[in-house]
Amino acid sequence: MEYNYREVEQKWRAFWEENETFKTEINPSKPKYYVLDMFPYPSGAGLHVGHPLGYIASDIIARYKRLKGFNVLHPMGFDSFGLPAEQYAIQTGQHPAITTEENIATYIRQLKQIGFSYDWSKEVRTSDAKYYKWTQWIFMQLFNHYYDKDANKALKISDLVVHFSESGNKSVNAVCDEDTPNFTSEEWNRMSEYEQQSMLLKYRLTYPDESVVNWCPGLGTVLANDEVKDGVSERGGFPVEQKKMKQWAMRITAYADRLIDGLNEVDWSDSLKDQQRNWIGRSTGASVRFAVDTILDKENTPQFIEVFTTRVDTIYGVSFMVIAPELESVPFLTTPEQKEAVDEYVKWVASRSELDRMSEVKKVSGVFTGSYVINPFNNEKVPIYLADYVLAGYGTGAVMGVPSGDQRDWNFATHFNLPIVPILDAQKDIDTQADNTKEGKYINSGMINGLEYKEATKVLTQFLEEKGIGKGKIQYRLRNAVFSRQRYWGEPVPAYFKDGLPYLIKESELPLTLPVIDKYLPTETGEPPLGRAEGWMYSPLTPRGRISDSQFAGESSPPGGGGGYPYELSTMPGWAGSSWYWYRYMDAHNETEFASQESINYWKAVDLYIGGSEHATGHLLYSRFWNKFLKDLGLVPEEEFAKKLINQGMIQGRSNFVYRVKNSPLTSRGGILDSNIESESSPSGGGGGLFVSAGLRHDYETTPIHVDVNIVNNDVLDIEAFKAWREDFVNAEFILEDGKYVCGVEVEKMSKSKYNVVNPDILVDKVGADTLRLYEMFLGPLEQAKPWNTNGIDGSFRFIKKVWRLFYDDQDTLKVKDEAPTPAELKVLHTAIKKVEEDLERYSFNTVVSTLMICVNDLGTLKCSKKAILRELVILMSPYTPHIAEELWTILGNEAGTISYTNFPTFNPVYLVEANFEYPISINGKVRANLSFPTDALPADIEAVVRENEIVMKWLEGKEIKKVIVVPKRIVNVVM
RNA sequence: AACCCCUUAGCCCAAUCGGCAGAGGCACUUGUCUUAGAAACAAGAUAGUGUAAGUUCGAAUCUUACAGGGGCUACCA
Asked: Which chain B positions have some atom within 7 A of a protein CB?
């Protein structure tokens, strides 16, 4: 009888659940290890085989670390707020909480059947009020803090207020809005409540702000920069436009330097760190003010235009100034003569979508405003242009044009016939293109003529600072993050508005739960969905809009009695709940803190974090930001929350195709070899079509049609299943090759519409969870993207059966013996122990599988069924194939459930020691002979023997030996 | 356009410090078993590492250029 995986796996999963085998408690006597998966958004489609890839890897590490004596925290939860559930709610009217609940149930069922060793008692859901109470709480802390540059950390706003009232803001070195004015303590103390609160908003780490945002009409909400891809929304692919709106923002820029510097501390992939560095985009340069020479409107024309440049040394090469067409100062810099042209250009720019703009990057466009600025270094008049290659959102939205040194400026200058002045003697070919070299000495450059780059920059910066018209400056690409979504299914912001200014509710009033609404759409007046909630108002005595634990039970809040202050109508974005969840797992049911200090100080930070690289500039950046903030507050001990991070590669779909012959009614098959056609012979039936096998398709004109990969085996179509698959194929006919219908193949994204989705449920049923786990790891290196191909899974299945056969013979008799192992058996075992351990330590999951296969093959060859060997083998296997390992472990007489916490086998090098080593002897790099020497033979002795060797002599053909290189236990190379 | 990763047998992949290119799996071939097929078991065949150059006693591994595939960003002044 064969191994009955269905029964055995079922049994152990039930055992683990009943006995809470993987429940974890704080245990200071053991070293801790925290293995975390990026928690999923529970979508309606359930899991496909790509999802568990990372989870399997992390589970293997979790199980391995337990065997190595660590106290392992390995939890799972759900990022359960989000757009899809809400979109579904809009369509069906069903509360997102209900669909979310159902989807989570499916996820849990699917996850459990793969045999993960999660401590389910620590599960979290971001949409649970008990969880988002603390998301809201962290938001409140952000509101109550500012970033002090001297202390280089977040400090309390209340301390700032004290400072203001004592000595104004001049001596405060804090991160704040650009337009923050200076004031004295007297001025501060004279300010009204309204003025003071408005001023403080310029410092708070989260604040409502009127800013240009990515507005997505299709989704009815704003989006963060990382949620917009190629000018359309990441979710749904709707167009995105720029719109000015009042939004909550997070002052993440305050942490820009620490976010960059912290990357040096963590063991993440270079590409991921690069992505974050690029996203933050720190560039060092200088700001320079150019005085405006053409004053058109005394009130509104700016006195100067400030630019940021990384190449202040090129300032003598400036031949024009460009400002972004979106800037508010544009009309006041436009002369009457140019007004028409400028208006037209501004209109044209506004009419173009992000997509148009991106696709026309190469085209030069722009218009002259008619006015000028003065170059402060040579007092030359410089014309001001508008051009859309300058972005309003970066720096000051203005750029000094240096055509000899910058290709974009060169293109612009050439197009508008502006002078191109060389500034370095090393610049080449500037008639045909810009040369951005820093080599050589400056020419045409006033005070820096004859100097070199480094010195010139110093001289110029000094001049700027002395004259008060500029200074050295560090500019970031990173923007403060928009933190509002005009959606329903997210965390309510625990703030209300009084006189248009935000105030927090009391901590004791948390959580502010989502109210019941009738429809999940914006209101008639365009307010977010929460605008529909009755009584969504705060009154200090009885906060309204609250629903108790059952958020969606339907009882509405007491009707608002008219009083109170309106709550914020936006909700928090998807990344709010995911920016701190790893702490909640540590103490998931704490009602007085987001997690106890005891648990945080024990578990500290994540030791291994596994998830997709698509979160590089979203979740992983925001999480680092919140973590640093919590560290500043002294609430968490580590600056970086995830020390080691692995991005698992995406599992792509492998689509199969059938080829329908065009224009081939079934009756017209006269010319085709009839014997090749398998037919149910219903010639006039309701169609069905004629399908040609992939190898023969070029003889016909065909239409490829996606076919469900689940009815294809090794690219051979199951014809009966195909006919049953879709009604219109009932009468299909086939042109076969070698008696088979072979399907075509293509690698694409895994998606329902391509019929290439492979469901893990089916595989667990067909071959078992252990085989699935083993096979997913065996596919290749974890980080690498790879197509899913079920074909090879038989090999993993066979492995499981082979292991079983080491224990039971054909007659189903247990053949395990208590005899002492032989040296050969011990060598096989210890080779595997060494390799499994080394490979797991370096996260080489795929090679461990083949190591186990080799070990089992070798033990099979040795006909080894000795208990002492098999016991260790079972432990080695257990992280990968926990079910069969548990079964065999008890068969060997051990107590059920104890294998997870036993000791990993100890490698003993003694068993691997060989008396001799067979040296390959190469002559000029080519192997010509093999000679055996004792392993401890001295290189000099080996060389002496090799020099005398007959085969070597023969190859020398009388020539001199120049050198003999002996690499102990590797190779000998004779050079002649 | 920049940056990062990848390219080894028909396919998926090993080769950890530069030291005999092959461990494992799929597919394939042959055999054992079988009425037959499948399964199982056993045996076997297959590449010289994308291309070109360089460094080295020695290169899949290091360097440079090019080609192909993938990812990420996209006028960042």
From this structure: 3-6, 11-16, 19-21, 23-27, 39-42, 57-59, 70-77
